[in-house]
Amino acid sequence: MSDIVLELNNLACGYAGHKVVQELSIHLRAGDIGCLLGPSGCGKTTTLRSIAGFEPVSAGEIRLDGQVLSSPTHNVPPEQRRIGMVFQDYALFPHLTVAQNIAFGINKHPERQRIVGELLELVKLGKLGQRYPHELSGGQQQRVALARALAPEPRLLLLDEPFSNLDGELRRRLSGEVRDILKARGTSAMLVTHDQSEAFAVCDQVGVLREGRLQQWDTPYNLYHEPATPFVASFIGQGYFIRGQLLTPDTVQTELGVIRGNRAYQLPTGSAVDVLLRPDDIVGQEGSSLTATITGKLFLGASTLYRLQLATGSVLEAIFPSHDDHSLGEVLGIRVSADHLVIFSAQGSVNVSAQLPLEQVLASGVSV
Question: Any residues with CB less than 8 A from the CB of 155 and at least 6 apart, and which?
């Protein structure tokens, strides 16, 4: 059997004659948890419903374990796809007990009771099998929905915004538990969410969608540190772009000084570029000639996020340990400490202050 469990090849799909998703190609390895991430209306749920068999495919194909499930001329019915689904609203049967809900899809299985018992323990509801859904909390209901979807041992599990009805702390805890459960069973899954922290906490691979087109399919680490497009760079995490000029393949002149990157960039020398700086790229340095004024402050517990304004008017963000406390209006000495320098070609003229002649910059060897 192939290591690839799910393949979407040049997929186009939509509803009511409206094409929502176009030219979407991704693959998911067996045992991995994938995610479709993006703003509302970008095609995440439409893609998930097409994988489940609820929406038609107008171009391309969907394969599970190498078998074509959907194409413009072929469609395997949803009940024959070996795919489970966990819905946003749980969709539990109110007149059935927890155990009966879990057993719903395996009522004819000779080992039904054993499977239900194992799943109740797996989702930490071992003593609640005889309760009804209305007697459970939202997190417990979600666990029941997950156990019910896992009972038939699907080849792929689909999760459509499964934690959106839960409050913040419960959402964070349950998303981690769901990942542990899926990994313990070796179940391949595809999650849909607009919450990037949730996607990063649960998933091995994440696809960022914009207006129905895939921007990047990659690991959470690479999406944050190696975004493929300006949209991914701005959508994932926090940060600001500043304008610069490429001096050498790995060196950029900016209003923060000369910044040296960690690779050679494939742009002509002298190109106008936009440089992405994350909050963790900006660090404090007492006595630095480069200063910024604190114009915003967000206390996060273990850390504090500061909004900084440079003398030029440009805005940055920096995250400091919470015990390193500063006040609004305070002027800080800062420097750039970026292990991964993300650069994109910019349109328009270069707009950097205190720009040095190219020969002088190269001779000085100065870096920030």
Answer: 5, 64, 65, 82, 83, 188
